[in-house]
Amino acid sequence: MSNVEEIIAFNKNRFPEVLKLKYQAMLENGFRFYRGTCHLFYKHLSQEKAMPASPVGWICGDLHLENFGSYRGNNKMVYFDLNDFDEAIKAPVLWEVIRLITSIFIAFQSFEIESEQAMNMVLLFIKSYSTTLCSGKAVDLDPRTSKGIVCDFLKRAEQSSYDDLLKKRTYEKKGKLVLDLQDERHFEVNKDLKKELKQHITTWLEENDESPYNYKVKDVVYRLAGTGSLGQKRYLFLLKSINTKDSYLLIDMKQAFDSSLTPYFKKVQPAFEDNANRIITIQKRMQHVSASLLSTSRFKNEDYVMQELQPVKDTIDFKILKNDYRNMYQVIDDMAILTASAQLRSTGMDGSATKDELMAFGRQEKWKLILPEIAIKLASKVFTDYHHFEDACRNGPLKDSILGV
Predict the structure, then answer these.
(1) Helix (H, G, I), strand (E, B) or coil at 334
(2) pLDDT per position as a tens digit, 43-69
(3) pTM of the model
(4) Dihedral sign, CA of 307, 311, 314, 320?
(5) b/e for 323-355, b at 16 or more Cβ within 10 A?
(6) Taking each helix axis from N to C terminus, what angle separates 366-395 and 93-110, rounded to the nearest 10 degrees?
(7) Bridging pattern class, strands 89-92 and 78-82
(8) From CA 153, how far away is CA 151, in angstroms rounded?
(9) d(Cα 206, Cα 317) in Å, to the nearest integer?
(10) pLDDT at position 405, please?
(11) In 47-114, which ranges are continuous DSSP H helix?
(12) Among 90, 47, 76, which residue's Cα sits nearest to residue 270?
């Protein structure tokens, strides 16, 4: 099976109309393609014989430059941390590192940032990651401990309010607040499904201990977000407080699939109840503080992750850091420290490596020398896949699947 055929097969259970938007997004550049084809990356990695062994720990699985961000935790404070756990799994800890440093090479080439800077950032990431492992101490970043652009993100998140979010996502219709279908990220849900979804959330509010108290469902839309997850079932709910006037919440409900890493790591995983529970369990283990209202639900025999929609959820835009070496250096350093910290935070759980094992691994030198060469090779394979995908969209089997190409 060709890699284009694998992309088609992997996405066969996505909404066809939204899948067209995913393919359009993946055409944007090599980095956007990389974000949408995690499964292909691990196929290439599984064939890389030079990849050094590493301890088995918890990883988010799809770590790249835009899967860090600012968010409000369940303690109402804001943090900068890893923020996407759809692919999370117990696997060799270097899988997380190689996925990230490969993303540096791909993103910098896509954004026309000098290759020398890319290598400098890769070497910095490896150094800061290993140094943090050696320390054995997990670090978190909040407005008091962060610097540079991350500090700016977190201060902006602190100052943001739900009123700002509601103004962006809703409007008043016949005296009632509803979700805005003029928002390009919102799509109407058909009448019957809308009724079923509202009843589902009503039951979830009544029965789930992690759900908000004293709220009722007012509206629901289909929601677009991300790249890799485009085409999955994803809904946004507007909830209104029963007790407090003009108090609202927005809840995101995202379909959970199997991790695309599973075929490439054969050791038995813990027996999670379902994929949604796998995702939130690992997220809670790896993040310093979890996102607000993080929970699960089951709708029509499908698993979903539930969480509060964030007033501000910034990710780093490296295009604007192209000529800002100081901020770029600080961000990459932070990302490396947070990657190691997430792994240290989740040691010794369900058979993952102990802290002592990770500290000893951090002191080893051989893997640090080999990893950049492997990442360069993997990045080259990604760009080859991207060019084949471009051709398939313009002249091949995906031509009729793409709108506006």
Answers:
(1) helix
(2) 999 999 999 999 999 999 999 999 998
(3) 0.94
(4) positive
(5) eeeebbbbbbbbbbbbbbbbbbbbbebeebbeb
(6) 50
(7) unpaired
(8) 5
(9) 40
(10) 43
(11) 93-110
(12) 90
Residue 136 in this model has a pLDDT that exceeds 90:
yes
Q: CA 54, CA 340: separation in Å to the nearest integer?
A: 13
- State yes or no: pLDDT of 267 exceeds 90: no
pLDDT in tens, 362-384: 999 999 999 999 999 999 999 99
**302-308 and 68-72 strand pairing:** unpaired
Which residue's structure tokens are 């490969």? 102
Question: Which residues sit opposite 217 in a β-bridge?
Answer: 239
pLDDT mean across residues, the chain: 92
Dihedral sign for Cα atoms in the order 135, 141, 142, 147: positive
- Report in angstroms the alpha-carbon separations of 337 from 125, 167, 326, 343, 345: 8, 36, 17, 10, 12
**pLDDT at residue number 323:** 74
Whether residue 78 contacts residue 72, with contact meaning beta carbons closer than 8 Å, is answered with yes
DSSP state of 223: E
More confident call, 243 vs 324: 243
Check residue 11 and give left, alpha or beta (phi > 0: left; psi -120 to 50: alpha).
alpha
Three-class SS state of 162:
helix
Q: Where are the domains of the chain?
A: 3-159+323-401, 162-257+273-308
pLDDT 10s digits, 194-227:
999 999 999 999 988 888 889 999 999 999 988 8
Distance, in Å, from the CA atom of 97 to the CA atom of 340, rounded to the nearest integer, reads 9
Rounded to 10 deg, the angle between the 355-363 and 325-345 helix axes is 140
User: Hey, is 69 helix, strand or coil?
Assistant: strand
401's tokens: 């699947």
DSSP 8-state assignment for residue 145: T
Pairing of strands 302-308, 186-187: unpaired
Main-chain phi, psi angles of 312, to 5 degrees: -140, 130
